[in-house]
Amino acid sequence: MTNGQALRVLIVEHEDDDVQLALRELRKQGWEPDFRVVADAETLAAALRERPWDVVLSDYNLPGFDAPHALEVVQASGIDTPFLVVSGSVGEDRAVAIMAAGAHDFVVKDHPGRLGPAIERELREVAVRREKARAEEALHRLAFHSAVTGLPNRAWVEQRFAEVAAGESDAPAHALLLVDLHRFRDVNYSLDQRRGDDLLRQAGARLRDAFGDRADVCHVSGDNFLVLLPIPRGADDAAEAVRVALGALTAPFDLAGVQVEVSATAGVALSPEHGTDFLSLLRHADVACWTARRARAAAATYDPKLDEFTPRRLRLVADLRRAIDLGQLVLHYQPLVDLVGRRIVGIEALVRWKHPELGMVPPGEFIGLAEHTGAIRPLTEWVLQAALRDLARWRGRRPQFFVAVNVSARNLAEPEFADRVLAALAAVDAPGSALELEITESTIMEDPDAAVATLARLAAAGVRVAIDDFGTGYSSMTYLRRLPARTLKIDRSFVGAQRDGSPQVDRAIVRTIVDLGHALDVQITAEGIEDQQTLDVLVELGCDQGQGFFIGRPMAPPDLDRWLADSPWARP
Ligand code: C2E
Ligand code: MG
Ligand code: MG
Questions:
Q1: Which of 42, 209, 385, 520 lies at 20 to 30 Å from 348 by C-alpha?
Q2: Contact at 8 Å (CB) between 83 and 102?
Q3: Whole-angstrom Cα distance, residue 101 to residue 54?
Q4: What is the structure's pLDDT at 3?
Q5: 178 and 33 fall within a common domain
């Protein structure tokens, strides 16, 4: 034992002689006691509050006080400190009783030599106990807090919500905000991960400070934070909370000298309206956040009408993968015509799903889901092969005929996509020019580099590239120029725009797109031609190709056979 080691001793004693006896014994054992003597409950409690003690030594009998009471006071303080009784003989019953009550040892004054080893042992044990408690607390923190921000995590807020929901009898009104940071990924990738973590920490701290104890702020994952708060005034309180949350994140962040501005989107779900259990509330806040982002709004409150994850949708997700294997997908073909030469040049393949119970499901309802779930890959593969196989049926008599297939941005990001397209062409012995790939403008922008690389390879093999729904997205001209597109398809909202109850071509937009396209040496196709008048205007404005119900609807192959035999557009 080291000499003169400080020992903070709280002595519960009324006889000075006994105090001296204990101190002498401690010094003999090599300690330097830093002590205080107390003799009643109040001063004992005050001393415990005032500073930490390594050990409490208590006489058994004091005037108006005794060791069992002293032990109670120590235990009530919640501090884990060894409590040793140092006393004359009190009889075995009392000695056993106070040990059972939680005293750590009983040293008889006649044998003071036992005091030193007893204290040493208790100090060791209390250290072990504290270490264990620390580890448990750390585990608890780990389980219920985010390691990056130190804020409570999802598990914590889930538990917290269960508490508040159980605590109040009638439907306690709460709002759950999901706050999603936008530029986090940029920071993580273009600066570095340390700064990314720093951004999350700062954002979390700002949210926490902005709400104080009005709300629970948690870091759920990546760049998502949750704010849970009571809303006694209902939607007004929720709207105010959105303002507070987004307001807290507007000022630029200083990330080790780099100023970064971060925008955020908030999705709001209200309890009990949108769910009384945490998980559905969280899912609804997530849906709201997604709705807001898609609408390019700062925030949105959950709206069941806009929820794309309705039971029907979930059903479709579950059935979609098997639909391909079960042969439930079919292709319809819509004629694409040359507006100047007035004749058919190709067909567009449009997929439909013949669901055994839900009937014909339009692509608008399941293509997005397929993109979400990864089913778009086998789906596009199937469409490609089926369309090229069907094409052979008509190409014999019309060698210039091509089929247009819609592909999603996800497909273009697949590294072997170009190979698979070329293999599909080779399998039916068709040249690249027999195929057109239609890619929507907005999806190209999701991953422009991947799109440009894949399409360049295919274009080199003669495959036609068309940009679909042009005008609705926000593509940058730089990328458009880099894309090997030979056709722009003007979105039908500009072609058949409803004005005064009748469809009317949005001349300004169509003319701009025609001029732009011709300047870039690409052809213009107008979608959605529903009447003669629209067709005439589009020809006048310089559109090269057209498509629409007025010319021909999407048709099953036998119907297309009939159309090809009868339509004035189908002269060979
Ligand atoms: P899209 O590629 O722009 O296809 C044109 C859509 O406009 C088709 O809807 C077609 O039926 C419709 N349409 C054609 N002419 C007219 C008209 O005169 N008036 C009106 N009101 N509509 C007309 P559909 O078949 O419901 O397809 C919707 C979208 O689903 C397609 O838009 C395309 O983006 C996507 N899609 C269809 N098939 C596939 C596919 O195999 N793969 C992928 N990735 N997407 C597909
Ligand atoms: Mg299309
Ligand atoms: Mg289109």
A1: 520
A2: yes
A3: 20
A4: 55
A5: no
Tell me what pLDDT residue 550 has. Answer: 95
Estimate the crossing angle of helix 376-395 against helix 557-566, to 10 degrees.
40
- Same domain for 197 and 107: no
Q: Is residue 569 part of a domain?
A: no
Q: Which domain holds residue 465?
A: 313-564
Sign for the pseudo-dihedral over CA of 518, 523, 527, 530 = positive
Indicate if ligand 1 lies below 6 Å from the C-beta of 438: yes
Residue 476 confidence (pLDDT): 47
Strands 435-440, 464-470: pairing kind: parallel
Q: Which residues lie closer than 8 Å to 493 by C-beta, 6 or more apart?
A: 471, 472, 528
Domain count, the chain: 3
- In the three-class reduction of DSSP (H, G, I as helix; E, B as strand; rest coil), residue 563 is classed as helix
> What's the CA gap between 13 and 76, in Å, rounded?
20
C-alpha closest to that of 274 among 180, 369, 161: 161
Q: How far is the centre of ligand 3, averaged over its atoms, from the C-alpha of 345 (Å)?
A: 17
Establish whether residue 378 lines the binding site of ligand 1, counting it when its CB lies within 6 angstroms of any ligand atom: no
Question: Kind and range of the H or E element at 181?
Answer: strand 174-181
User: Is the bond leading into 272 cis (omega within 30 degrees of zero)?
Assistant: yes
Regions in the chain scoring below 50 on pLDDT:
1-2, 474-476
- Rounded to whole angstroms, the Cα distance separating 332 from 269 reads 41
Alpha-carbon separation of residue 163 from 54, 156, 232, 275, 286 (angstroms): 37, 11, 17, 15, 22
Asked whether 367 lines ligand 1 (CB < 6 A), one says yes
Helices and strands counted in the chain (H then E): 22, 25
Query: In a mutational test of the pocket of ligand 1, which residue from 527, 530, 547 has the highest number of ligand atoms less than 8 Å from its CB?
Result: 527
